[in-house]
Amino acid sequence: MKLLYQTHSPYARKVLVLAHEAGLADRLDVLHHETSPTWRNDEVFRLNPLGKVPVLLLDDGVALFDSNVICEYLDSLHDRRPLIPRERMARLRALRTQALAQGLCDAGIAVRHETVRRPEALRYPAMRDGQIEKLVASYDFLEREWAQAAGDAPVDLGQIAVATALSWLAFRELPDFEQGRPRLAAWYRRFIGRPSMLATPLTGQTVD
Ligand SMILES: N[C@@H](CCC(=O)N[C@@H](CS)C(=O)NCC(=O)O)C(=O)O
Asked: For position 2, what pLDDT does the model report?
């Protein structure tokens, strides 16, 4: 299988970390691609009309996107403990956590558009501030309602999604999530030491 990847994408890294945790990483041919709404990548568009990575190209030619769908697929390929729990409420909780993590990445990217990516004259401070509010509210939610339980639970998709989102937010120097949130900070520090995280470092700059 070919994974159209990006070394600085939190969504792509989520897929690759899950593949490592599932013991599937050596079945993936990982190919770096630059993408941006202002910089068309024809190879990616041929497989995903949204022009975004990650895309997983299966051996029979089927292209799977987005990262949530790819994670679901990969989790069906192995015999280890499922990373997306099978029991209904546990599954919904993991998927809800993934949704929150996806939202963190979406908001972080929006902040970057309004701070460094758009030409200066086109930046909109009210949009930046509104997206930062989402980040801070989500950090507080994770501290209040999630981190303690996550620390006591086996690794799942929700944890992988939060770890890859937070580490990308730190990589891009977006608002800090550790200060004043001791449970989240402790969980995060432990998780980023996992072999799956160490094997998938974030590198590179966005090409717009
Ligand atoms: N919901 C998608 C988001 C993927 C996404 O936004 N990927 C970024 C890289 S971090 C991208 O390719 N952006 C190009 C664009 O927005 O045109 C997923 O979870 O896979």
From this structure: 98
